[in-house]
Amino acid sequence: MTVCETGKTMIHESFCYDDAAHAQFEKRGYVIFDHFLTDTAIPELLGHATRIVAETADCISDGERQMWLNPHQLGERWFWDFVTEPKLLDMIERQVGPDILFWSGGGVAKPPHTGMEIKWHQDAPYWNVTGNHAGGVWIALEDVDEANGTMSVLPDWHNKGVLPRRQDEDNDLFNEEIEPSSLPDNLEELKVSYTLKAGQMATHNVMLPHGSSPNLSDRWRRNIGLRYIAADAVLGDKTYTSFKDGTPYPREAFLVRGEDVNGHGLRRSPFE
Hints:
With 272 residues, the protein is of the alpha+beta class. The chain has a single domain (10-257), classed as Jelly Rolls, CATH 2.60.120. Helix content is 20%, strand content 25%. It has seven helices and 17 strands. The strands form five sheets. Strands 1, 2, 3, 6, 11, 13 and 17 form a seven-stranded antiparallel beta sheet that branches. The longest helix is centred in the first third of the chain and has 15 residues, at 41-55. The radius of gyration is 18 Å and the shape is globular. The two termini are 20 Å apart.
């Protein structure tokens, strides 16, 4: 079942990105919503995430198979239907205006006891994208906490600019981190760790430092992350690896609302 087939939304009727939510997003750099996915959407999306992990090609390393990116470019229509949900795009429009690109999204699946750590980083400088970013959208597909590798953010630090970075030699997949000396000494006291129930969502400013712990529990940790930007953005070249067969493919941005303001000939869907 997909949104396209049923015409039903996957977003909970109570979800509302209102003035209070936007004010916290602007001030603190993040906001958490008690309800985002419907009760039926949670197992449906979790089922897709579980299937993708199971179908990941054997040639892909254990580390790389924990992250799957841009499945809509690989024929996964359910994902495209989800990222273009009107209520979701309404939130993005509030953040960046009426002309919107969807440029990246996918999931991280951390297996029990082996799920990777992702060091502290800022999304915007890491992903080679320049423009008016919307907040990153982080959706829990199952209950998450620090034990099974949830994400933590550093409130109020989205206004610090680009922090010094270095290579993370321990992670071949996500190989960059903020220079530890640039983070506060009392980081553990200041950070906010997402303790979310399945179906909850958080959005964070793409300059907000964040990272996630390894999964040390007996549980999986699966989530979906989405990234949007204003349509006048400049996107540098980026190549991803297909989970289906391990071949490389280039990132493509799609115009999901509004106008192609720079006349780049942007497609509105990978399924045109």
